[in-house]
Amino acid sequence: MDWTRGQCLVWLLIAALCISARGQQVEVMVEARVVNSATSWTSTLSVATVTPVHSVEWSDPAGNNIVTRILESLIIKPGTPYTDRVELLTNGSLVIRSNVRSDQGIYTVKVEPQASTGLTSNTVTLNLQVHELVQGVSVSASMAGVREGRDDLTLRCSQTAGSSLSYTWLKAGVTLGANTSRVTITPAQVTISPVDRTDSGNYTCRVSNPVSAGEATQAVRVYYGPESLTLDRVSSSDCVTSDQVTIGQPVRLTCGAVSVPPATYMWTLRGRALVQGTTLNIPTLMANESGTYTCRVTNDQTGVQRNVSTLVTAVAICLSPGAVAGIVIGALAALLLLILLIVCLVKRRRDQAKPLPKKQPVVGRSTEVEAKVQPWLDRHQRQNPGFSSALGQDSGPRTQYTEYPPSTGSMVPSTFNGGSGSISVTNQSIHISTLV
To answer: Are 88 and 69 in contact (CB under 8 A)?
Structure first.
């Protein structure tokens, strides 16, 4: 039989495809390459195939056969640690019950496809991690209380059970950051050197592994003080001098300080102990109770002692701030009045020293009449000088004449200086009527 060149090529292509199909492995799908479990738990090593399978075989981490299924026949190898604890599911997954720590390791499954598929077998491995549950976590401190700037603090974390552990440190619920110049963190330990007051608080150690977790908290108290001492005085006396108190009045002195733990207080007067506590009450101040009152503040944990004092002077009478203010205001008012009086006197002296202005005669409009009357005035006798306000003018010197000049029978206005007829005229210029 003669083969054409084209036929040979076709058959060669078919053979190549068959060989390629024969070399392809059956697909085995894995849910998780690493399976985490805990002692006494049940774990499942999950696999699946979509191709008809001839056989599935599982081996333990040591390479020993655990279970095999050939078509519909299941064979569990007797006499192994898994004999009574394993199960092979229809999809090829392996179930191990009541896990123990020795179950941990890498398991191998070999899947053989049916011959009709033309595929080859495939082997897949899965890692089973069997953890011990975390239990009994606790935190201990090197010292229950530490002194600021003087002591170091070490916190240690421990647990009674657990494996594959990781540690996380928190303060007041916030994760502690990286190491600083004062703080050093190792997996199960925190060291602070030296401590300060900001290190006070609750420290938590959280221990965990992939299947469990536990935590414990330790309170840390940093001692410091006393510092920022204060001393307040309350009295019903209202003396302008701060240390003065009227005899017979009550006095209350109160002392305070910033201190952890709270400080103790002792009051003394001239070296003599009076009373313990933050407050000293004097119901009625006596004359012999004047002096410097001292509050002695002590922190028993830090061993630091500090004092704060105040002077109390018992007086029979004292000026209040209101009385002092009244005196000052009265003095200022008197000074102001004195200044005003001096100004008025100076002004009056200046006014008296000024010369009176000279009055100029007023030239009237009736010059011709005046020329006629004046000679008569010069000839006749003047009588009864005095004062009169008959014309409604200001009073002044006047001259009365006993005779009158001849009249022409008419009234004419006349203005002249010096007076006239039977009416009084002043030294001022006036406007009168006369017979001419």
So the answer is: yes
Under 8 Å between Cβ of 51 and 118: no
Residue 433: predicted pLDDT:
45
Q: Which two tokens stand for residue 112?
A: 């053989």
Give tens-digit pLDDT for 272-311: 999 999 999 999 999 999 999 999 999 999 999 999 999 9
| Average pLDDT for 244-268 | 95
How many other β-carbons are positioned within 10 Å of the β-carbon of residue 10? 10
E-strand spans in 316-408? 382-387, 397-401
Cα separation of 431 and 413, whole Å?
7
> pTM for this one?
0.63
Q: Specify whether the CB–CB gap between 149 and 182 falls below 8 A.
A: no
How many CB atoms within 10 Å of residue 400? 17
List 415's β-bridge partners, or say none.
431
Question: What tokens does 10 get?
Answer: 């076709």
Give the type of residue at 55: S
- 415 contacts 367 by C-beta, under 8 angstroms: no
Neighbours of 175 (CB within 10 A): 10
Q: Which residue has the higher pLDDT, 294 or 11?
A: 294
Helix (H) or strand (E) holding 267: strand 264-269
Spatial contact of 218 and 168, defined as CB atoms under 8 Å apart: no
Dihedral angle, C-alpha 400, 406, 409, 413, nearest 10 °: -50
Rounded to whole angstroms, the Cα distance separating 110 from 328 reads 112
Measure CA 115 to chain center. 80
How far is it, in rounded angstroms, from Cα 126 to Cα 33?
5
The answer to whether the CB of 307 falls within 8 A of the CB of 292 is no
Structure tokens at 431: 């406007």
Burial bucket for residue 422 (CB in 10 Å: 0-12, 13-18, 19+): exposed
Q: Which residue has the higher pLDDT, 433 or 356?
A: 356
What's 342's DSSP letter? Answer: H
Most confident range (mean pLDDT) of 134-143, 173-182, 348-357 is 134-143
Percent of the chain with pLDDT over 70: 74
DSSP 3-state percent helix, strand, coil across the chain (nearest 5): 15, 45, 40
Query: Which among 141, 149, 154, 147 has a CA at the least distance from the CA of 185?
Result: 154
The pLDDT, as a whole number, for residue 351 is 76
Give the Cα separation of 37 and 58 in Å (integer): 19
Q: What residue has token string 């000088």?
A: 385
